[in-house]
Design a protein that fits this description.
- Helices cover 28% and strands 22% of the residues.
- It is built from eight helices and 13 strands.
- It has helices spanning 58-71, 89-99, 107-112, 123-135, 138-145, 174-182, 263-272, 277-285; strands at 3-7, 47-51, 75-78, 102-103, 150-153, 156-159, 188-191, 198-203, 206-211, 217-219, 224-228, 242-248, 253-259.
- A seven-stranded mixed beta sheet has the order 1-9-8-11-7-6-5, with helices on one face. It has a six-stranded mixed beta sheet with strand order 4-3-2-12-13-10.
- Helix 6 (174-182) links the parallel strand 6 (156-159) and strand 7.
- Helix 2 packs across helix 5 and helix 7 (263-272) runs antiparallel to helix 8 (277-285).
- It is globular, with a radius of gyration of 18 Å.
Length: 287
């Protein structure tokens, strides 16, 4: 059993333990007590900007992408949930389609497409998804339909939620983090979905890490890492600024970034579209 030093993690949102057609089929061997050693393969992509959980918040996305552009990364990866909750789903889909080199599907994307039962979502989330279905353009729908909830890139494995359930599972506990690393083999595993920025490492038999607030700079040179960039469009953890991650796979560093955006403009658009007041209010608090 791995020892752990695991700080500031607590469950957020509702855990849904249902079998999904997108869920990983791999199981953790009962005898597994260690994770795979990191690979030393040559990398074609070096510096990557990672974003996730945009949720129709165009002003947050634009602010994050402006900051990303100043860093001039080799690639932009998006871990899914372009839509849901927020008032500008079409514009967010178009921007991500234009800018991202890799994009995953999230549970809200799949819910809007009708591939998941909206009864499995919280009431405000389900109502926002149903509204999104009424305004989504054909181009945005086609783009979302082309996405999948997991991918493998140079030096990293990408999941919207987790390796054992790429759609639904929240990685917010030591057990879930260890399972994610046991089911993968690349040096870096990237997840979204929880809206909580995380930096977690397993080295030998020790698991440590937890929440990654703004300006966290993680040295990835030792061990294998699970990273969550946090949410662009609906951050949680008490910081309302849009979150993203700058990942340098060659230098083996990860920098957690935050950028302010005009929250009040997104809130006004939520009100204009008749979406739930709670979806506007939570943006100010970052919860």
């Amino acid at each position: 059993m791995c020892g752990s030093t695991f700080g500031r993690l607590s469950p957020s949102g509702r855990f849904v333990r249902l079998q999904r057609k997108y869920a990983a089929t791999a199981q953790i061997p009962a005898s597994a007590s260690r994770v795979a050693l990191p690979r030393e393969d040559g990398l074609r992509t070096m510096r990557v900007a990672v974003i996730s959980d945009i949720h129709g918040n165009l002003h947050a996305l634009e602010a994050a992408l402006d900051q990303v552009a100043r860093e001039r990364p080799d690639a932009l990866w998006c871990l899914g949930d372009l839509v849901g909750y927020g008032p500008r789903p079409n514009e967010c889909c178009e921007l991500v389609r234009e800018r991202a080199d890799v994009c995953l599907a999230g549970n809200h994307d799949l819910g809007v497409l009708g591939e998941l039962d909206l009864d499995d979502f919280a009431p405000d989330a389900a109502a926002a998804a149903r509204w999104t279905q009424t305004v989504l353009t054909e181009a945005a729908r086609d783009f979302l339909a082309s996405l999948r909830p997991k991918a493998i890139q140079d030096g990293a494995e990408l999941y919207h939620a987790s390796p054992r359930d790429p759609v639904w599972e929240y990685v917010l506990s030591p057990e879930a983090a260890l399972a994610a690393l046991q089911l993968t083999s690349e040096r870096v595993v990237l997840v979204g979905h929880s809206h909580v920025a995380l930096a977690i490492v397993v080295q030998g038999d020790r698991l440590r890490g937890g929440a990654a607030p703004a300006d966290t700079d993680a040295d990835l040179s030792e061990g294998r890492w699970l990273l969550n960039p946090g949410s662009v469009g609906q951050p949680r953890g008490g910081d309302p600024r849009a979150a993203w991650l700058l990942l340098d796979l060659k230098a083996r560093r990860a920098e957690f970034r935050r950028v302010a955006y005009p929250i009040e403009r997104t809130q006004a658009e939520i009100h204009e579209e008749g979406l739930a007041e709670a979806l506007a209010a939570r943006l100010s608090a970052g919860v």
